[in-house]
Amino acid sequence: IFGVLWGTLIVSFASSIGATLAFLVSRLLLRDWVQSKFGHYLGPINRGVEKDGNFYLFSIRMVPLFPFFMVNLLMGLTPISVGSFYIVSQIGMLVGTAVYVNAGSELAKITSLSGLVSPSVILSFVLLGIFPLAAKFIVSLIQRNKS
After folding, report:
1. Distance in angstroms (rounded) separating the CA atoms of residues 120 and 143
2. Distance (Å, rounded) from C-alpha 6 to C-alpha 144?
3. Where exactly are the structural domains of the chain?
4. Helix or strand or coil: residue 1?
5. For residue 82, what pLDDT is reported?
6. Is the dihedral of CA 68, 22, 104, 141 positive or negative?
7. Three-state secondary-structure class, residue 110
8. Residue 31 Cα to chain centre, angstroms
9. What whole-number distance in Å separates Cα of residue 117 and Cα of residue 43?
10. Where are the alpha helices (H) located in the chain, listed in sequence order?
11. CA distance 101 to 4
């Protein structure tokens, strides 16, 4: 409908705003209760998030191993700031969003069965397959350089 560029921008901002709203609901409704019940277990996690929370969130966003709704809710229970959560989510989800929007845009152009094997559709599916592997590789490089 919007094309790859506008579609990516719209989906990127909408998904980041939605993620932040879920984060805020979790923080406002559950954080105090969870910290009071399980705070003694969560101390090391909270300290880790205080120290490297942006990197952890970026890694999770880049490598879509965990469902995003869980990430949004669980990060709301941690000490990461709302602003950091939004910005890191926006950046971390951007490449994946672009890949998915591109794939959707290419699929929308298909008018016959032969369109399924067009170079642009095949490239979109290749990108969908490569993205998690490339993201994992990038995150591991960042981790190695960080240590």
Report:
1. 34
2. 35
3. 3-146
4. coil
5. 97
6. negative
7. coil
8. 21
9. 52
10. 3-29, 31-62, 68-75, 82-108, 119-146
11. 6
Our measurement of the distance from residue 127's CA atom to the centroid of its chain's CA atoms, rounded to an integer in Å, reads: 16
How many other CB atoms sit within 10 Å of the CB of residue 86? 16
Token output for 36: 């009071």
76: DSSP letter: T
Which residue is listed with tokens 């939605």?
A: 18
pLDDT at 69: 94
Q: Position of tokens 């996690």? A: 45
Q: Can you give the pLDDT of all 147 residues of the chain as single tens digits?
A: 788 899 999 999 999 999 999 999 999 999 999 999 998 899 999 899 998 888 889 888 887 778 999 999 999 999 999 999 999 999 989 988 988 898 888 878 877 777 777 787 788 778 777 877 787 788 788 878 876
